[in-house]
Amino acid sequence: MPVSWTVSRLPGRLRLRHPTLRQAARNEALQATLRGWDGVLSVTGNPATGSVLIHYDPARIPPVDMEARVAATLGAPDAGKAEEAAKKPAAFAPRKLNRAAKIGMLGSLSGTLLALAVGKKLHAAFGVAHLAFLTVHLATHRKQLLR
């Protein structure tokens, strides 16, 4: 089963979570399919969180078999596409860019304080550099900031 689907597993209990289960129709369809299985005691879905909780009888369906059946129902990811995506280099690495921006902010802030002793123009230049690095940092985190 794809790692991204299974959140927790205990004998008799299996929780699935995936962004596609936030679609109410998809969540309800999966619940209806799972409810029809022999040995499934209850199925509860929550489209708001994109999760489905399955309670089943582990004496009738061993946990390994239950996970295999759920995986077959959900469909396995296309291995060829996953390999192809892994081979492609990342077009944009936000973590590396953000790390460089953080280091730049720290350096330019230090430079700004030291430049006070030299002159206003150097102080202003370091301040502008700091604002540029800050802009990169905020652009990297814009989605979290705009929630």
UniProtKB/TrEMBL annotation:
Organism domain of life: Bacteria
Pfam families xref list: HMA_2
Protein name (record): Cation transporter
Species of origin: Azospirillum doebereinerae
